[in-house]
Structures are given as C-alpha cells and as structure tokens.
Amino acid sequence: MKRKIFISLFAAVALVGGLLYSCSKEVAEPEQELMLKAAKTYTAQSIMVNIQTSDFIISGNEVWVFDVQEASEYFDTPGNSGAAQEKCTFWDGGLLTTDETVEARTAWHLQNSTGGSADVSANILIAGESANTFKKGYKYSFTLLDSYNLSRVINVTIELKDGIGNVIGTESYPFLPVGNTLLDGTDANTLVYNANCGPYGSSSVVPLLNGQTIASILSGDAHPSNNSEYAVALHTTDTYSLAAGTYTLTVSGTIKGNDGVASQSFSNTGSFTIHAENCQH
Known about the structure:
Layout: E1 6-7, H1 32-37, E2 43-53, E3 56-59, E4 62-66, H2 68-72, H3 81-85, H4 87-92, E5 94-95, E6 101-102, E7 108-112, E8 118-134, E9 137-141, E10 153-161, E11 167-175, E12 178-179, E13 192-193, E14 197-201, E15 212-213, H5 214-219, E16 232-235, E17 240-242, E18 245-255, E19 264-276
Parallel strand pairs: 1-8, 3-19
Antiparallel strand pairs: 2-8, 2-14, 3-4, 4-7, 5-6, 8-9, 8-16, 8-17, 10-11, 10-18, 12-16, 13-15, 18-19
C-alpha cells in the first residue's frame, strides 16, 4: 500500500547518507561606502533550501531509523552535524569523539520488523534573506511575505527518483505557507542561515550574510523594529515505502520578487541512501 512521504523543514540537517546540494553559494563583497552615498535603494536576495531525511538501515527483516535529535544531546556542537557524523558509532556502540561511550543501537529505533522497506520521512525548509539599503545602513528581512501578507514561495514541485532515474513520485503546489514556527525546538536563535541559491538583485552593493543565526543577522542591522519578524516555509510531502538503495529528492519553485528584485527560480537536489545490513557513512 502506497504511503505518503513526510517532508517538512528543519534546522541543521539530518541526512540519509548525506545530502548534496546543487545550488551554488555566492556571497557578494560589501561596498559600504557606495551604499551609504547612493540615493537609490538597492535590494539583494538569497535563498536557503534544506532537504532533510533520516538515516535508515534495513537489517534482515528489521528496519531501523536514526534519531539525530536524540543523538545530538551527546554533543555541544551547533546543529546536528556531530551526531550525524557519528551515526555508525551509535549503531555499533563504542567511544564517541566526546569520549563518552554508547551502547549499540543508541538513538536508533526499530521502525518495523516486517522486512523489506523503510517508511522514509524527509523535511524541507526554505528561507530567504532580503537585504536593502537603509538611511542608517542595511536592513535585513526573512519574512518571505509579500505586501498582501501572502507567501512568496510559489509554484513548488517536489520530485523523488530512484537510483537509476525513475520518477517515484511528484508533487506540485501553487504556494507553500510560511510562518515563524519551526520544527524540533529550532527558532530564529538557533537556525543558522547558509544560502545555497543566489544571490539575486544588487548583491554587488548590498552584502548578504551567511553562517549566522537568523536572530543575529536581524539584530545586527540598522533596523531594529523588525528583529522578531521572520518566516520560513515548512512542508510535509508524500511518504513512500522504499527498499534499500540510493534516491534523489529535488525541490524547485519560485520566490516571488519584492522591493525591486524580480521573481527568482530555485532548484535544489538532495541524495540519500537506505543502507542494507550495516551502517555506512
């Protein structure tokens, strides 16, 4: 029986076998003096598309899923990178890089024992950084809302393919709702923004920021009144029962333009693997 895949969005990335992003990061060099002297308003924009899945192992008739949030409690590093890198230590048991010993199958949970396929879930998070000149400096925004308070994330398509390129499922949405409620306890204070699509607009004049939390970017600009205003697109997609193998998931769509920046298309692809028998990096 066909099930539908869960794809919603989320902070730092729990990858099945590791996601590979296809959009390139480009960050323009700031030209502060030019911006401050210019009478014209300049706007630049970038986009972050995170595709997140869980790690699965099919061992005999048992299907196991890795809980990266549970594993991340053993680390002090930002996000879930440390936990994801040591998923096999959690599976086999042993000494973590934190010098703490864990038993085999720690943070791995039995999904089913009927064998053959995993009920794969994935998360998608779309965030957009807009930056424009302001009389006192730069103003940054992460609202993803237009002047009518409607989502600017439109014409979204999600496509899942198997390892030989066969399309397993496709979804299309005229728009994705946006809001400031994130998943897994993540909020603007912990969600690190790293653009992987763009930049667009006047990025040679207005500096776009990466590698900081949304909260720190908003609080560090010259427009304090919008420090608590941010939004991201979170989505739950169809779920499929998948056998061991490698798969790709592509998310594409358009960010509707604002403040003089034209609408921009984006496309990002993540690959993941459902492992058979043993844990593999």
